[in-house]
Write a structure and sequence with these properties.
Blueprint lengths: L1 H26 L9 H11 L2 H7 L1 E4 L5 H7 L3 E4 L11 H16 L8 E4 L17 H4 L20 H17 L4 E2 L23 H7 L2 H6 L22 E5 L13 E2 L3 H8 L1 H8 L4 E4 L3 E2 L2 E2 L4 H11 L5 E3 L16 H11 L4 E2 L4 H13 L5 H17 L19 H14 L1 E5 L16 E5 L6 H5 L20 H8 L5 E5 L4 H6 L4 E7 L19 H9 L4 E6 L7 H4 L4 E6 L6 H7 L48
Parallel strand pairs: 1-2, 1-11, 2-3, 3-4, 5-7, 6-8, 7-10, 13-14, 13-15, 15-16, 16-17
Antiparallel strand pairs: 8-9, 12-17
Helix pairs in contact: 2-15, 4-5, 7-16, 8-11, 13-14, 16-22, 18-22
InterPro entries: Cellulose_Degrad_GH3, GH, Glyco_hydro_3_C, Glyco_hydro_3_C_sf, Glyco_hydro_3_N, Glyco_hydro_3_N_sf
Organism: Tetracentron sinense (Spur-leaf)
Keywords: Glycosidase, Hydrolase, Signal
Length: about 650
């Protein structure tokens, strides 16, 4: 009897506790997907402490992060910098497990706010072993689309936005296959000087082509619904990723192409050349915008309140979040990090919402906390940043689906994506010379020949073919770092089985003359580079490229294929070549080169960049008064396919 008398009040207490817990769960509107997004944001922000809000504004590199840090600091985002991988040759499953482990740390924090993991996927999922590597943007800018609005088959004046949209969709699938929902792409720089080490990340010197190519955002994020408000971020579910338009603004216009330097141009020039692609990106619902390291007329973009807040956020009505570049706020001062508290103050006040710290997170958190508590930065600025970050997370369904699975693992490097990359390669190639005149073309080459020579440092080097931002930040030389097809392998597969192929990387002229070759294919160009390491004042090909051209093309009919991230010095050698092809940085699918070389498909690419005669002419862009190019903007010879398809 005594036991039953005790159990009645206990049951009542238990009931009250359960009821209170249920009421609390119901009260958490931010966890209810049926609630309007603004209601969810408001409810969550009302629950957040200053520490949790600043945690959301912090992005860290995976190498300095632990599950405990994610939980205890409510860190908003993680990233993999260039080459930052779980371990070499990690599989999709390895990536998913790593991302989920960190995410579980975030979900176990007081409010369970999921983190967003970002990565540079700038020409496919380029950090990841066996991913499809697409041509870099400079090549995609050279693609052209057949007009569907006329009876004739006229080529468009600008690029092929439908192709880059498909590339964006394929990239999104491969990125999601590894559990990652956010990419730092596309780069919508307008490169005005090829001496810049990031010129290959730019679609063109012409902002109109760059604007057309922002269609990749619709591929990455999904097509914006017809009734969507302009400027509001949009991601169409678990097969799509949040995109990032970068680098705001004027990164491609620096003096002499010096990376992270000063863009000297008046406001009308900035708005008419470097800004237009941001209009298109925002209209397409781009989720984030990354600020440029560079300055505009001496003012660092990372501290430019006028452009970041008043123009991007207030005038253009961008509603996603603004993110810094890697240690971007550190570089507000010279030397970098010399007054970090000032840098934090200046960057946050400029309108940066999420800071890619990415290493010393406690210093950033402590300094920003101090600045807010001592009224140097108003709480309204913090709330604006957090509201924007949460808006992106809610809009992409991160609260409903924070953890990745292996359902898309087979998308990584899939044959369908490799076929798409191959199509992109053949459409990106620009034929600059084909015989001494139109009546005596060398291309397309015959597949059946007694003996052919393949020469050059880039003919059998997948790393060179892919360029920078491939497996590592700066890229690699060689064929053992990922899966793909070199140009030599593609030639071997394309020619008739009876054709003898001789490969000699740098043959001397006597060897060439004595072997009775039917023709030669010479593949030369630049070594790999990224960012500042690619800045060049001379723009010469890597040795022994010039020697190889001279030795081979002086002795036998030859086509030279240039693998480069930009136009390079070629004028002294053009006369000795029978044909010349600009192949840019084509990526893993070398068969795209042989598709047009041997006439299975026609050449259709057109220069999206002016090809200069010598570097003393630079900068030189179409429309300049001193315009005197070797090959003008828009130039590109065509061929007819040799077989019906």
């Amino acid at each position: 009897m005594g036991m039953s008398r005790i159990s009645i009040p206990l049951m009542g207490i238990l009931f009250l506790c359960c009821w209170a817990a249920m009421a609390e769960a119901e009260y958490m509107k931010y966890k209810d997907p049926k609630q309007h997004m603004n209601v969810r944001i408001r409810d969550l922000m009302n629950r957040m402490t200053l520490g949790e809000k600043i945690g959301q504004m912090t992005q860290m590199d995976r190498t300095v992060t632990t599950v405990e840090i994610m939980k205890n600091y409510s860190i908003g985002s993680l990233l993999s910098g260039g080459g930052s991988v779980p371990f070499p040759q990690a599989t999709a499953e390895d990536w998913v497990n790593m991302v989920n482990e960190f995410q579980n740390g975030s979900l176990s924090s007081r409010l369970g706010i999921p983190m967003i993991y970002g990565i540079d996927a700038v020409h496919g999922h380029n950090n990841v072993y066996k991913a499809t590597i697409f041509p870099h943007n400079i090549g995609l800018g050279a693609t052209r689309q057949y007009s569907k609005h006329t009876e004739s088959t006229q080529l468009r004046l600008v690029g092929d936005p439908e192709l880059v949209k498909r590339i964006g969709a394929a990239t999104a699938l491969e990125v999601r296959a590894t559990g990652i929902p956010y990419v730092f792409a596309p780069c919508i720089a307008v490169c005005r000087d090829p001496r810049w080490g990031r010129c290959y990340e730019s679609y063109s010197e012409d902002h109109k082509i760059v604007q057309e190519m922002t269609e990749i955002i619709s591929g990455l994020q999904g097509e914006l619904p017809a009734n969507s408000r302009k400027g509001v971020p949009y991601v169409a579910g678990k097969n799509k990723v949040a995109a990032c338009a970068k680098h705001f603004v004027g990164d491609g216009g620096t003096t002499k192409g010096i990376n992270e330097n000063n863009t000297v141009i008046d406001r009308p020039g900035l708005l008419s050349i470097h800004m237009p692609a941001y209009y298109n990106s925002i209209i397409k619902g781009v989720s984030t915008v990354m600020v440029s390291y560079s300055s505009w007329n001496g003012e660092k973009m990372h501290s430019n309140h006028n452009l970041v807040t008043r123009f991007l956020k207030d005038t253009l009505k961008f509603r996603g979040f603004v993110i810094s570049d890697w240690q971007g706020i550190d570089r507000i001062t010279s030397p970098p990090h010399s007054n970090y508290t000032y840098s934090v103050l200046s960057g946050i006040q400029a309108g940066i919402d999420m800071v890619m710290v990415p290493l010393n997170y406690t210093e950033f958190i402590d300094d920003l906390t101090y600045l807010v508590k001592n009224n140097f930065i108003p709480m309204s600025r913090i709330d604006d940043a957090v509201r924007r970050i949460l808006r992106v997370k809610f809009s992409m369904g991160l609260f409903e689906n924070p953890l990745a699975d292996l359902s898309l693992a087979n998308e990584l490097g899939s044959q369908a994506h490799r076929d798409l990359a191959r199509e992109a390669v053949r459409k990106s190639l620009v034929l600059l010379k084909n015989g001494e005149n139109a009546d005596s073309p060398l291309l397309p080459l015959p597949k059946k020949a007694s003996r052919i020579l393949v020469a050059g440092s880039h003919a059998n080097n997948l790393g060179y073919q892919c360029g920078g931002w491939t497996i590592t930040w700066q890229g690699l030389s060689g064929n053992n770092h990922t899966t793909g097809t070199t140009i030599l392998s593609a030639i071997t597969a394309a020619v008739d089985p009876s054709t003898e192929i001789v490969f000699a990387e740098n043959p001397d002229s006597d060897f060439v003359k004595s072997n009775n070759f039917s023709y030669a294919i010479v593949v030369v160009g630049e070594h790999t580079y990224a960012e500042t390491d690619g800045d060049s004042l001379n723009l010469t090909m890597a040795d022994p490229g010039q020697t190889t051209i001279s030795n081979v093309c002086g002795s036998v009919k030859c086509v030279t294929i240039v693998i480069s991230g930009r136009p390079v010095v070629i004028e002294p050698y053009v006369a000795s070549m029978d044909a010349l092809v600009a192949a840019w940085l084509p990526g893993t699918e070398g068969q795209g080169v042989t598709d047009v070389l041997f006439g299975d498909y026609e050449f259709t690419g057109k220069l999206s960049r002016t090809w200069f005669k010598n570097v003393d002419q630079l900068p030189m862009n179409v429309g300049d008064s001193h315009y005197d190019p070797l090959f003008p903007f828009g130039f590109g010879l065509t061929t007819k396919p040799t077989v019906a398809r």
